[in-house]
Amino acid sequence: MFSSFVQEMPSCFEENIFCGKNIYRNIAIMGTTKSDLFSKEQNDLAMMAKALAHPARIAILQYLVKTNACVCGDLVEELGLAQATTSQHLKELKTAGIIQGNIEGASVCYCINPKVWKQYKALFNAFFVDVDLKDKCC
């Protein structure tokens, strides 16, 4: 409905605003213009966390790690989700680089990308440092 009126929001706006015929959205701008305020490691960690931010994707990764091999077609049965839904989750994980896939005949086989897995494991380990809170906090 309003999609023809959606425009890039001027940087002075902080909220979604409807003004006459224009709807300004800060969502599109936040992802592209504000990410440069943060380090590469912070952006990489956020991208990885976003890729992991669904229980189906966690289940996929756990299954791939557990099998420790390329998996072809077993994921739909393992997850209990529709083929299209499973494919969408696989696409998100592949876009993040955490898994890799090869086409074998009519199916695509997936496995953990070991190089990226190690990189993100190191990022998460560095992020989750031990915290020694004092007795009184908040």
Number of strands: 6
Helix content: 40-55%
Query: What is the overall silhouette?
Result: elongated
CATH fold call of the largest domain: Arc Repressor Mutant, subunit A
Q: Alpha-carbon distance between the termini? A: 46 Å
Fold and architecture overview:
This protein is α+β, with helices and mostly antiparallel strands and 138 residues long. It folds into two domains: 2-33, no CATH class; 40-127, Winged helix-like DNA-binding domain superfamily/Winged helix DNA-binding domain (Arc Repressor Mutant, subunit A). 48% of the residues lie in helices and 17% in strands. The protein contains six helices and six strands, in the order βββαααβααββα. The strands form two sheets. It has a three-stranded mixed beta sheet. A hairpin with a 2-residue loop joins strand 2 (17-19) and strand 3. The longest helix is centred in the C-terminal third of the chain and has 14 residues, at 114-127. The radius of gyration is 20 Å and the shape is elongated. It starts with 5 loop residues before the first strand and ends in an 11-residue tail after the last helix.
